[in-house]
Amino acid sequence: MRAPIGDFDRASPASDCLGELIRPVADAVRHWRGSVPADQIVYVDTQPQWADTAAFLEHYGKELLDQSANCVVVAGKRGGGTTLAACVVLSATRVDVNGVVRRQLGARKASFAPMEVATGETGMEYGGITPIGLPADWPVLVDSAVVDLPYVLVGSGSRRGKLLVPGKAFAELANAVVLEGLGV
């Protein structure tokens, strides 16, 4: 199969690569529901040393910048409680944590979750966190620019491999909220 975006040596429907995906992501693909068929989610095999956005683009092509998204975990605090959420924004932007995220979560303060919290709560590797397979009760905040793309390159849950996902599929994830201006 040829990848819908980018030039990768190996691309396959993620549903055919469940053994290569970490458990929460494999389970999410296995039980996929929505208007986008699961076989349109594509797994591309990439090397872990190129997982971080800058290194990835240097190796696989800077033209992927406008088709790539980052998924980051944020913690919103109010009173004694903390709400963890995922934010999905285009890689060329940064998450508006202190504006859009804080207001959406109804938090007094919002910040990026510490790495050990992000990886421990998701079961995913740092540098590979994806919105597919997150804890079911988490809000998933998605920038509208991500949803508008035909395909988006995002982490696969581990530093090895990436997922190519139709943008509109992100709007259909459990607890997804599409927001204008989440990525600035």
Walk me through what this model shows.
There is one protein chain. With 184 residues, the chain is α+β, with helices and mostly antiparallel strands. 22% of the residues lie in helices and 25% in strands. Strands 5-3-4-6-9 form a five-stranded mixed β-sheet. Strands 1-2-8-7 form a four-stranded antiparallel β-sheet. The relative contact order is 0.22. The mean pLDDT is 96. It comes from Streptomyces glomeratus.
Chart the SSEs and their pairings.
Blueprint: E1 11-13, H1 23-30, E2 42-44, H2 53-60, E3 69-78, E4 81-90, H3 97-105, E5 109-112, H4 115-122, E6 140-143, H5 144-147, E7 152-155, E8 162-165, H6 167-170, E9 176-179
Parallel strand pairs: 4-6, 6-9
Antiparallel strand pairs: 1-2, 2-8, 3-4, 3-5, 7-8
Instruction: Report the average pLDDT across residues.
Output: 96
Second rung of CATH, namely the architecture: Alpha-Beta Complex
The total beta strand count reads 9
The fraction of residues in strands falls at 25-35%
C-alpha geometry:
globular
Structural class: alpha+beta
**Would you tell me which CATH topology applies?**
YbaK protein
What about the largest sheet? 5 strands, mixed
Indicate how many domains the architecture comprises: 1
CATH class: Alpha Beta
How are helices and strands ordered from N to C?
EHEHEEHEHEHEEHE
What's the CATH H-level superfamily name?
Answer: YbaK/aminoacyl-tRNA synthetase-associated domain
The percent of residues in helical segments reads 10-25%
Which stretches of 5+ consecutive residues score pLDDT under 50? Answer: none
Radius of gyration, in angstroms, nearest whole number: 15 Å
How many distinct helices?
6
Strand order of the largest sheet: 5-3-4-6-9
Span of the ends, CA to CA: 34 Å
Domain YbaK/aminoacyl-tRNA synthetase-associated: 52-169
Organism: Streptomyces glomeratus
Protein name: YbaK/EbsC family protein
